[in-house]
What does this fold into?
Amino acid sequence: MRIARFTTGEDPAYGLVDGAGAKIAEITGDPLYMKIELTGRTYAVDDVRLLAPVIPRSKVIGIGKNYADHAAEMGGEAPAEPLMFLVPNTAVVGPGDPVVMPPQSQNVHYEGELAVVIGRMCKDVAPEDAMSVIFGYTCANDVTARDLQSSDGQWSRAKGFDTFCPLGPWIETDLDPADQRLVVRRDGEVVQDGHTSDMVHGIAALIAHASAAFTLLPGDVILTGTPAGVGPVQPGQRVEVEISDIGVLSNPFVRH
Ligand code: MG
It folds into this structure.
């Protein structure tokens, strides 16, 4: 199932998107908490505005350097244990929403990533049980102020600015996350072309590691790391993150 959050100008609603990504069948409430029931109303995707498919209730957990080729381009090796950081939920925006580049940074980078959406409250999840706590998957851009990431010495500000965590276009609940191609385009040019099978720590290991520290809540999001090819974005450019069996997340970058 593909679950989108959208608006027609009224309050946000949820809906099921068809395989072609053309139509949305509205459902009665938030599928993280309610049984899925159709309202009977349908819309063309082109006639609605898609919103971030989930607003994390408590946290977005980022994972640093989880692809060896990206760790190498950052000048190091992938860490032996997953390296976690937290992104505030106020950084989340949806498909098509502008990423606002702040005046504090002169070097804003895209990072295309597979995002995992947690489906239920859990703690100390064993790796063999990890897939059972997943609601679904979406595309993410872990936007990073690269200059502040190094000058601050930690990553809260560099990755936590408002609009720095685009998610979408929808949540795919039926996905083999181990076998997805991840392509990022900047103004149409392919700049990242990776494969989720190249993650250093797989999704089950990430959930086990994160839940050993934090209680995970429904709607929490784990960003699983980016492959090689990160780079700067200029104001006016558009970045697309495409994951084969999910779709395309596309956002313009602007400077006010
Ligand atoms: Mg990242």
